[in-house]
Amino acid sequence: MAVFVDLNICHTTDKKRLQNIIETAAHLGYSTVAVNHVVELQGKKQEIGKPKCVTELFDQFPIVQGKSKPIKVLNRLTVVASEASHFRPTNEFKSYDIIAVFPKTEKLFHAACMSFDVDIICIAVAEKQPFFFKRPPVNGAIDRGVFFEISYVAAIKDSTMRRYTISNALSLMETCKGKNVIVSSGAETALELRGPYDIANLGLLFGLSEGDAKAAVSANCRAVILHGETRKTALGIIHTMKKIQPTAERQEEEEGPVSKRAKTETGGV
Amino acid sequence: MVRYKTRYLLCELCVSDQSSLQLLDDRAVFTAVREAVSRAHGDYGAALCSLAFAVKYLNAHTGVVFLRCRKSHYKIFWSALPFITSLESRGQKVPCFFNCLHIGGTIRTCQKFLIRYNSQQLNRMLRYCHNEAERLEVRRAVLSCSLKSLEKEEEEEQYGDEDEEWGEVE
């Protein structure tokens, strides 16, 4: 059984509802979820709030279906940008685990694919895509390891939105051929989530092949998380962290698989 | 010795309020699925629905549903299931969603999976018990079903698998 990830759960101030969504996600078999904070950038200087600490959400995180580990919750920031000058990476970005951008114009889409330091590029699902996906920026994004995200919640809610979602997804698949795509929920209530296998099958409607569709909810999402982790480290090779106790001899290893781990252990700063 | 090959979709109905499951019946599930398929796949989907599609089993306590359809286009059915947001029965709308647990070629394989899945659920429940009496109850249930499966396995070893083809023969 693969490890399933849902990288888009809408943040609500209603703590009870957020808990309910995460519990349902654990029941459905998602091992990791990301709580999404959406920020629309208007002016050049705009405050981006610090994310709420996810560890405060539960005393005891719910156990994932079919596994013995509790569910992992990450923070994600989605920047809705309509002008290139508005997107400036600040220090506040660093407190988020994953950063996504939702480009409104073709120019911005090009910039997001080629140069922005982001993990995910969101695709419009609630309206007709205002521009075509061109081969060079999409290929550039695939080379850089940036992923495209399709959110399925609009398709579930409404019939018109479903048409937009499917047509936008199909037009993206024509260009990227099913590579570097993730499918996520964007759920605001618990009943808008769907099981990972259902989503893998739903990917067939979006023009993904069977293998790509399954990777879109598991392997590709893992790549996104690791891509987000490298932002906090120096090129993903060296990671520095504060020692909490100077007397502690062994430093706690950061989470992640051994193969992606740096070979040289660096001491505390 | 030719039979129509079918696929059985073992689904779980997830609702926010467990008591609303009691309202459901086969008919409600059948119409909801048929509508969803014909909405998602048009007349072609509607035509497929009149061909060998049936709700075989519905457990109103746990919300488990068996759906039957032809093997050749079970994916068309499956891809329409996520678009169901509510079921209508007895004049009431029950918001819910389908979570597909297993897909099998015979009812027998689905049943085996379901037994294993339900015993897993018991183990999960153990964590959420609040007092000692509840915990004892769940523990007894876990033990009883594991003993039963042991007995069953022994039985199967003795008699062998005779009725492998338990699925519908037409």
From TrEMBL, chain A:
GO CC annotation terms, alphabetical: nucleolar ribonuclease P complex; ribosome
InterPro entries associated with the record: Pol/histidinol_Pase-like (IPR016195), Ribosomal_uS2_CS (IPR018130), RNase_P_p30 (IPR002738)
Disordered: region residues: 244-269
GO BP terms in the entry: rRNA processing; translation; tRNA processing
GO MF, any single term: structural constituent of ribosome
A matching Pfam family: RNase_P_p30
Cellular compartments annotated: Nucleus, Nucleolus
PROSITE patterns found in the cross-reference section: RIBOSOMAL_S2_1
Keyword annotations of the record: Acetylation, Nucleus, Phosphoprotein, rRNA processing, tRNA processing
Subunit structure comment from the entry: Component of nuclear RNase P and RNase MRP ribonucleoproteins. RNase P consists of a catalytic RNA moiety and about 10 protein subunits; POP1, POP4, POP5, POP7, RPP14, RPP21, RPP25, RPP30, RPP38 and RPP40. Within the RNase P complex, POP1, POP7 and RPP25 form the 'finger' subcomplex, POP5, RPP14, RPP40 and homodimeric RPP30 form the 'palm' subcomplex, and RPP21, POP4 and RPP38 form the 'wrist' subcomplex. All subunits of the RNase P complex interact with the catalytic RNA. Several subunits of RNase P are also part of the RNase MRP complex.
Similarity comment text for this entry: Belongs to the eukaryotic/archaeal RNase P protein component 3 family.
Function text: Component of ribonuclease P, a ribonucleoprotein complex that generates mature tRNA molecules by cleaving their 5'-ends. Also a component of the MRP ribonuclease complex, which cleaves pre-rRNA sequences.
Name of the protein in its database record: Ribonuclease P protein subunit p30
Organism, as annotated: Albula goreensis
TrEMBL record, chain B:
SUPFAM superfamilies: Rnp2-like
Subcellular location: Nucleus, Nucleolus
Keyword presence, Nucleus: yes
Keyword Nucleotide-binding among UniProt keywords: no
Domain of life: Eukaryota
Sorted UniProt keywords: Nucleus, rRNA processing, tRNA processing
Database matches in Gene3D superfamilies: Ribonuclease P, Pop5 subunit (3.30.70.3250)
GO cellular component term, pick one: nucleolus
Region (Disordered): 151-170
Record InterPro entries: Pop5/Rpp14/Rnp2-like, RNase_P/MRP_POP5, Rnp2-like_sf
Extent of Acidic residues compositional bias: 152-170
Membership in a protein family: Belongs to the eukaryotic/archaeal RNase P protein component 2 family.
Role this protein plays: Component of ribonuclease P, a protein complex that generates mature tRNA molecules by cleaving their 5'-ends. Also a component of the MRP ribonuclease complex, which cleaves pre-rRNA sequences.
Description of how the protein assembles with itself and partners: Component of nuclear RNase P and RNase MRP ribonucleoproteins. RNase P consists of a catalytic RNA moiety and 10 different protein chains; POP1, POP4, POP5, POP7, RPP14, RPP21, RPP25, RPP30, RPP38 and RPP40. Within the RNase P complex, POP1, POP7 and RPP25 form the 'finger' subcomplex, POP5, RPP14, RPP40 and homodimeric RPP30 form the 'palm' subcomplex, and RPP21, POP4 and RPP38 form the 'wrist' subcomplex. All subunits of the RNase P complex interact with the catalytic RNA. Several subunits of RNase P are also part of the RNase MRP complex.
Full protein name: Ribonuclease P/MRP protein subunit POP5
Organism encoding this protein: Albula goreensis
Lineage: Eukaryota, Metazoa, Chordata, Craniata, Vertebrata
